[in-house]
Target: Vitamin B12-dependent ribonucleotide reductase
Amino acid sequence: MANKKTNARKGAIKKVAKKVVRKAKVKTATRTKKPTKQKRDKLFFSDKAINELYSENALKMMKKRYLNTWKDGNQETPAEMIKRISHALAEVEKNYGHDNRFIKKTEENFFEILAKHEYTPAGRTVTNVGSPTPLIANCIVLPIFDSMKSIFQTLKDAALLQQAGSGLGFDFSHLRPAYSKTKKSNGLSSGPVSFLKVYNEAFGVIKQQGRHGANMAMMQIDHPDVIDFIRCKQSESDIRNFNISIKVTDEFMKQVTEKPDTQWYCMWNDKKMKPQRVLRAANGSVMGAETIDITAKQLFDEIVENAWNNGEPGIVFIDEVNRTNPLPGLGPIDCSNPCGEQFLHHYDNCNLGSINLAKFVTNKKMDWNRLRFVTKTATRMMDNVIDLFDFPVQQVTDLAQRNRRIGLGIMGFADMLYQLEIPYNSEEGRKMGEKAMRTINEAAHQASQVIAKEKGIFANHDLSIFKKKNVKMRNAALTTVAPTGSISMMLDCSSGIEPVFALAFIKQDKDGQQYPYLNKYFEEAIKNHRIQKPLVEKIKEEIKNTGSIQHMEELPKKLRDIFVVAMDIEAEDHMKMQASFQKHVDNSISKTINFPNSATREQVAEGYITAWKSGCKSCTVYRDGSRNIQILNLGDGKNIKAPTEIGKVTKKEEVPVLNLSIDKGKLARRKRPEIMHGKTYQVKTGYGKLYVTINDDEYGAPFEVFATIGKSGGFYAEVSEGICRLISSSLRAGVKIESIIKDLKGIRGPMPVMTNKGTVLSLSDAIGQVLEEHVTTKEETKMLSENKAVNVNELIMIKSDSERNDGTGIELTSSSTPSIADNGLMPGCPDCGAHLQMAEGCISCRQCGFTRCL
Model:
């Protein structure tokens, strides 16, 4: 009994003690006035706090692209933008019978992940949702089939979608090869690249009007015109409104790696044939085509050479794409969106958004539970976006509703690794990337299944891989990794799964506006390592020029290992990282292998082959400095060429300094005086009036020649300019004038013409005759002033009678019905460059309709 009383007393004492402790805790909390979670959230989510989270660069970009301007002229703040997005997308829940409490909670969740910079939808959603502008998705694929009706119906649809801001993808493999017969017009095809140029020009006009999207053009490796396509962007100013990619097959890659010296064959209309070289005139028009012998390795090297030169074309492993096609019932996939991460059926689209992985690291540890919550919340948000789609092309809206694709991706991965102190190019880094993507992919699929129970499965479910798996899904596909250019700027994080380009760099947008960056995680690491201030300033100055710290041995090795940048990383490590992510991505990944300028063609080739062997769906490379215009640049921004400067020729581009060994001991051109005097001659040619100006040096000898004909930039103007430049170089290098005239006179073109001074056979002949007249007149004047007899034959060598035949410059033929060619009249069309033909007494062009009789 005593023990029982004792225990009871002890129990009573413990209860009293617990009450005292609880009261003490309450009093302590009251004294410190620690804010409740509700108050903390209210403080954190105030408009002022939200607006202050955005960097100067982010706000500058957002004002141009994302913040709406109201009727009164005022522009919304970032906080107002977030409220607009979260409210409009939560309201969709009303359509599915949810009550106000559920809708309010959904809006709060949407608002929270947006305000904390943990997630953002893609650009078109950020701009358009909740505003008067129709809501559309960033990426769509449209069909181009082998008929004028299809080509130009798609161009019409594409123009409307481009105007709304969509990015578009097109496969040009379905178009017949250049110089193939066309049944309806009884003519010859101009080929896929010619129609690509038509699309490019159309989109260029739309782009000039403001809103525009990017574009992708693809061609299969076994199309006969594949070489023409590979080379179509050799100049930086060509086809500026498209990215281009070659779709390579497993068969091709096996032949490259296993049988590199065997002939590569193409297919057209089920017929096996060799690739062809498309012959084009200077104005780009097709003049013919010839089949060529080329091995798979040589064709692969052609792709590598062009990619090494300026970053294009990219490569798509199309067999791998279709092995993972989530909707096989809709047929094979033949193209992707502009950046290659979203492979789509014709008229299908994808609604993109990205999770910022940099926001899930605390004290060098990942918060996986929070990542799962944000993923599921983002999945619901993106599914609601689809209900609000309103595309200007109805087929796109319909397929969006039937497939309900979303492309949930990531950004800030490199920043996440910096915080975790894990090198990007390490096995640990790849494992962390794989785990992050697996977590997101699994959570997104789980969320889609939950939403399917609430709202129903997507309409094309029976055509999908989920039918066989007996899994009910709301969405046909859920994950992808987009490049996240401007949205990563908005949240001030690294792009996609890319390594950081440089620790300090200048980014410029399409208008040439510059945004300077210095990596904030590197700055923080320097502080934590207590590096002395003079060295800190030296480091910052150095990384402005190089972007990297790998050569700075005064820094700790651990720091150098962690803070690697894109060009510190081998191509193999780039592709291994992409492959690690690809294991848990429904669609594809936008990823670029950034090479230093010193990278070799062999390294580029190795990158492509590694990507194929690793199971990647696409691969893009870029060698730093291989283009005049770059988005990301080292330095202080003073000498960066803006995108608006594309097409302008600089002095450096006009006269490249080659320093060739074969030029040693050769003649160089004399320096041109600032002021020169000369004469201008008018001469009639078969191509119009030609104006030739000849300037003389201080001794009265011809020094340079200029010629003008037709419009600037036209075909004949181009030819005459080229001739005159070579003449001027020869004159300034000391070549005899007599020799130059001899080489020029007598050259026959397709359109000789009679003049009051005799026959002019061609542009070359006309310039030669003018040059002869110029020097002969001067010599005659000189001899007459010296009272000498003039013998023109001794002054200038003249063409023999046998060369001039009957004196007209036109060879006669015994044929009773001479053809145009027999008469030296097989001219090129001044509009398209095709051969002109005689029909009904008039010379005309069957290709474009030009006629000389009008």
The longest strand covers residues 677-685. Residues 2-32 form the longest helix (31 residues). Residues 139-336 form a domain with the Anaerobic Ribonucleotide-triphosphate Reductase Large Chain fold (CATH 3.20.70.20). The chain has a mean pLDDT of 84.
